[in-house]
Amino acid sequence: MSSTPATTLRLICGDDDFAVKQVAKALFGEWCAALGGMDHEILDASAGNSGEAMKVIGRLREALQTLPFFGNGKVVWLKDCNFLGEEKTASSKAVMDALGELAVELKEHDWKGVRLIISAGKADKRRVFYKTLEKLGTIETHMAWSVDGGQWVPQAEMAARSGFQKCDKKITEEALAELLARVGPNARQLDSEVEKLCLYIGNRAQVEINDVTEACSRNKTARAFALGDALGERKLANLLKRLDEELWEAKFDRDKSEIGLLYGLIGKIRSMILVKEMVKEGWIKPTHDYSQFKNQLARVPADQLPEDKKFNPLAINPYVLYKAVAQVKNYTSTELVRAMEILLRCNQRMVSSGLDESMLLQHSLVQIVSAPTAI
User: Fold this and answer.
1) By the 8 A CB rule, do 26 and 59 touch?
2) I need a surface site. Which of 134, 181, 191, 302 has the fewest CB within 10 A?
3) Interval 219-235: pLDDT, tens
């Protein structure tokens, strides 16, 4: 009986389903090319209930036991497995028992000439099956980008640049920043928009910011940024138009609400207050060059900033800060503090008064934007 090398068994999992599928697909192609032959198998492991999960496990057993007729071996890909985490199907006793039995079989299996890829969503590390795979093979975890703290931005920048490089294209810093602001932490849409831009510019070698604004769409997260930008620009007509669009979408999208929009606007005002203070301290200054602005941020003394990400400007998407630097001139520090007070009062009234939330939000924004300016 041969031991199982890490190069023979691979679990690729995580809540970033796009990355999981891309990596698993690439690995399947690589292993198939290395082994040759035509006996490789892809098993759909998306199960709607415990009965279907049991059938998938049975098909996997059969695939692992069936020796290849051609080539040096075979690759089995258990694709889109959805019963390794905390899902209802995964919690079924029958499924857990079956996975436990499968774990024992994998330990005893003669892996000569057979390789196994399992691609899945979140996998429960406490389960026997996961621990077995961890000991026998290699586990790759791909977590989805989170909008919180702006930590997704460097990852997204790297992914976008890699996508453009594959097409022999480049993108300017400002165009890349605008692209990420429109797409947000969504790897699948970013990949799609990169492909779209490469086709859009044709024979040109570099993507400019005008290409992004003309060709790329905004997702939900980016449209929320657009509402904040309208507040920063202090143009009432544009602000009310954006608000109207967001309120209309909130009627059909259960993930959106008036209170959610309010929290986004509170975050915008908070970021503008922080930027205003950074400008006063001389840490940053307005510039039309996004690369220069990022260099300024790199020189900001981190030890003089709060550890709490909510109040630390360096935890904010740098492009949001870049746009805020130009917008803070539209408000005095006193007005920004007053704007925060108005939004907090709006929050209290939304929770306790029973008044129409959209009207409260609209009234608050009119108060903020229409206030006398003394800059």
Assistant:
1) no
2) 302
3) 666 666 778 888 999 98
Q: b/e map of 22-53 (b: 16 or more CB within 10 Å)?
A: bbbbebbeebbeebeeebbbbbebebeebebb
pLDDT of 1 over the 50 cut: no
What is the domain extent for residue 293? 220-370
The domain total for the chain is 3
Residue 163 in tokens:
């996508």
CA-to-CA distance for 7 and 208, rounded, in angstroms? 42
Q: Does the residue 364 lie in any domain?
A: yes
Nearest-CA neighbor of 95 among 61, 53, 47? 53
| 274 and 324 co-located in one domain | yes
* Residue 4 is assigned to a structural domain of this protein: no
Q: What is the DSSP string of 311-364?
A: G-GGGS-HHHHHHHHHHGGGS-HHHHHHHHHHHHHHHHHHHHT---HHHHHHHH
| 41 contacts: CB under 8 Å, gap ≥ 6 | 63, 74, 75, 76, 77
